[in-house]
Amino acid sequence: MEKIREFIKNYYFEILFTFTILLAFLIRFLHTSKGLPYLYNWDEPQTASNAIKIMKTGDFNPHFFHYGSLMIYLNLIVDIIHYLFLMSKPYNTLTSPKDIKIFTDTHWHWTISHPEFYHWNRILTVLLSVLSIIVLYKLVRLITGKKWIALVSAYLITVLQIHINYSIWITNDVPLSFFVILVIYFSVLFIKKGEEKYLYLSLVFVGVGSATKYNGAISIVMPLIALLWVFFKKRKRIKKITWISIFLIPPAVFLLIMPYAILDLPNFLKDVGFEIRNYKVLGPFATVEPGLSHFFLQMKNFYTNLGFPITIISIIGIYSLFKRENNLLRFVFIYPIIYLYFMCNTKMAFQRNFVQIYLFIAILFGFGIFNLYKLLEYSFKRLEIKSNNLSLKITIFLLLLIFIPKSFQAVNLAISVHNFKDSRTRVIGILNEIKGYDLIVFAKELRVHENDLRRLNKRYKVIPLHKIDRNKFKGKKVLYVVPEKLIAFFPTRCYEDLYRDRKILTLIKREYILERLGEYAARLDIYSIDPKILILKDFPEIVN
After folding, report:
1. Strand 478-483 relative to strand 439-443: parallel, antiparallel, unpaired?
2. Which of 57, 90, 254, 283 shows the smallest number of beta carbons within 10 Å?
3. How far is CA 361 from CA 145, 305, 337, 367, in A?
4. In whole angstroms, what is the distance from residue 539 CA to residue 224 CA?
5. This model's pTM is above 0.90
6. Residues 48-75 pLDDT 10s
């Protein structure tokens, strides 16, 4: 016990930091099973299914350039590793990558025949999220030298629910945050040490970030300003090749990752042009007036996601930007200011585009806590109060008051999400327990996954709503599993079909309903989130 106490005393800070990183991973990992084998995020197939498509076809052209291609290729590597892992397992049913069904096989965008591939891809995003927290910690230590400010900043991101929410999907926003924070970290290292290798690394990650999501190119301002800083302020002689590298390395890395930006130039320009027009001109979804209206909307979103105490302390942290000794802190905040200006001059107000800003808010929060501590210490001295570390105790108490509830909420929600089952998964267990029925008829619109259907211990058929005819099942005991409602949300079929199917659902009588479960209405022909499901003992007569 004495050795353990000595170890804790000597390494208590390292223990706290290790705990923070492990907690960050655990919370996010528990979320990665969310919804599976069904999809709850609109954008995941854009990356995950395109990666599987490359594995199936051997065609490395993603034929999709609305985002950068880096995450498609990284997920492809994960998919190959996972495929080889599966092939070593006795329970595996795959014989080749062609057995994996995606949208190109079914013409339904959200097809995932083997959802475990998505699960592994989500874990990749989680790892990049956790790495961004580690780099954030190292960056704050680099610019201030105070490890407690760095730890407080890192822990805020660890338990901040909005960051957790975006860290579990196969999307590009959190990976971009990781590459951006690396750009800034190496730019600061270049300023501090003057070694050009750090500038080159910063430029490499500008290219990597741009190949993740195109607005990552904004981060080029950081190595550029760092180079000017070292040249003019530190009077360091800069080689010509270093000046030229600013304009060569990022595009070279971008094209190394995305060669099809040139090889498939027409499609690249078509998709990128579509995104530029969407954000700057059309803005069909989450639309807001560019400029101050957009800025104030995002400020409101930040406040909503942070809460009052964290917002106030982060505002107090802004004071540190005006201290003479914090030149490097001011340098770091050049990026979020430019990024906010750029993104707030678009019409698209998706909060996911601003997820990287939370890393910088976490830095302000860390400095805000430090400023409160110094203010208390100063006040006790002026009032001639013998504090006996009272200022430190009050600061720690305030931190615990904020972090303990947030930590419990984050952990409890993660456990809840991990244990949650979609209504289509739950309905199978209910159906298996119901006795005395010969056949189960599922409405095709529910898109009940094959993994769930395999668990059913009764005969079943999957039939479109308008083709369900109870007269065909005379003499049999049949249960019908249908959505309670259908919502038109980008339907791939015409509105007349939707109106017809809705009308069928209105004919269902209360006495037909054996069970109701789920949260949301199903969406016709596209993904749905935990749809409301009805188990019916009878089905209405349909007159065509």
Report:
1. parallel
2. 90
3. 18, 12, 12, 10
4. 68
5. yes
6. 999 999 999 999 999 999 999 999 999 9
